[in-house]
Amino acid sequence: MVPGCVYSDYDAMSSTSHLGATACTDCAPGQFNVNAETAACSDCVRGEYQDTAGQTDCIACPLGSLTSRDQVPNTRAAFGATDCDVCAAGTYAASAADSATTCDACAAGKYSDPTEPACVYSSDVAHLSTCAALTTQATCAGNADCTYIFAGSACRDCLAGRYNTDSHDQSVCHFCPAGSFSSFSAGADSCTPCPAGESSGDPTTACSACGAGSQVVTRSCVPSAGSPTLAQLDICAAIVVSGATESDRQASCIDPNSGGDASCTYSEAPTNGNTGGNVCQACVAGQVSTVSTTPCADCVAGQYSTEGTTTCINCEVARYQPSAGVGARSRRCRRRGGTVPVPSWGSIMISGIRRVAFVCPALGR
């Protein structure tokens, strides 16, 4: 007899006797036999497996995995597993003892994805791509900035600009909404709104103040349908809005060839002055803003402004502007003789004196 197998034939007069046996039968996968005199194979216990027949022992599941039969609730017996399953996305098993029993859910601000590279950054997001490029345990361990983890054996911090709460799917971190941010530290479980007058930009990792002559605007791709799921919100939030015009930006949200998605649409609105946004937008001609915490305001009639300025300018002599919020200076009054008006600075309706000069066509003369 050799270990790993049992007698296939034995004396029919006694179930404990092996007299007359003619052959050994290999223990099946999921079983083992270490004693050559034993007439039965034993199942591999919880947390162990054996994928080959005729073996003398079982193999411990790797960190971050458990036997597939462990997924059956309230099971305590030996299992006879033939393989181990990596902990599902959003869960982990940090030690061999944990692997033998259950995979635990990731905490808020963290996630796990068994399909991602096993070499990860230790503490600095700047090393993210460097570590991901190290594909073996040996090369990963050789870089002090990186840490090697077995798939499913640890949860990872959400990157800057993302978050996860314990009420969400822990297999992925969600993008911070436009006008908010999260920094890279220990993983964020929420995003912080930008203060009034500040913009978070893209990616949403920090806020910075917008200058005078501008206003804070929220530009984003959002689901076109109501009551979207978190997955739908993430799809649209991940799209980088681009384009000089609103129609261009709409195209960037919906066109798959530009990285968009047909389920999204473009949204743009100035903030109300109480919160921040994700874009600093220069005031258009005809509007001004002295501080970025307030939206751009129209110049009154008789005044004008150029783009991105803080002060409205009175119309010059012989020029007029009857409408509010107009950028370019008004056209010159037409020349004619007779009694004509000569405007004062900043005039809306113009009164004049008798002299040959220019007349404003708005007077109807």
Percent strand equals 15-25%
Mean pLDDT: 75
Number of strands: 29
Distance between the termini: 123 Å
Largest sheet report: 3 strands, antiparallel
Helix share of residues?
Answer: under 10%
The rounded Rg comes to 36 Å
Question: Outline, from the CA principal axes?
Answer: rod-shaped
The tally of helices reads: 5
The chain-level structural class is mainly beta
Uncertain residue ranges: 9-17, 70-77, 331-345, 347-365
**How are strands sequenced across the largest beta sheet?**
22-21-23
Quick tags:
365 residues, mainly beta, two-stranded antiparallel sheet, 5 helices, 29 strands, rod-shaped, disordered C terminus
Task: Describe, in plain words, how this protein is organized in 3D.
- The protein is mainly β.
- Among the domains are: 107 residues, no CATH class; 85 residues, no CATH class.
- The chain has five helices and 29 strands.
- The strands form 14 sheets. It has a three-stranded antiparallel beta sheet. Strands 1-2 form a two-stranded antiparallel sheet.
- Strand 19 and strand 20 form a beta hairpin.
- The C terminus is likely disordered.
